[in-house]
């Protein structure tokens, strides 16, 4: 067994800074989203995925994979969103065991109303604090890490 490759001071600062930043940034943006629109982060993720699809539909399993949630966890969340009229669930034509989540008109209105405030929160707490060069570097870093983790960066 080889000795661990401990982080040096610079690497440790970057790692801890990233972890703390991510936690605080996610919490602040989620709080702003909830306060301004009444939507949770997962609500917003579901609605934005559905609204970006040409037919406003996603397979439940594909959506769960995108959100890194189990199918059952997302299914329970979708049930709560259905009760609020944001989405509906349909049987999948190609797989009797699967379901398709469909964005309702109320769901589309909700995401359209929430998006401007959400983007403003992202700008206020991250984007507007960085220079153009820093934004480029952050995007490059994200692409490198996502590629390593098996995602294409979309």
TrEMBL record:
Pfam families: MarR_2 (PF12802)
Example of a GO biological process term: response to stress
Location of the HTH marR-type domain: 1-147
InterPro entries (alphabetical): HTH_MarR-typ (IPR000835), MarR/SlyA-like (IPR039422), WH-like_DNA-bd_sf (IPR036388), WH_DNA-bd_sf (IPR036390)
Gene Ontology molecular-function annotations: DNA-binding transcription factor activity
Entry protein name: MarR family transcriptional regulator
Organism expressing this protein natively: Planobispora longispora
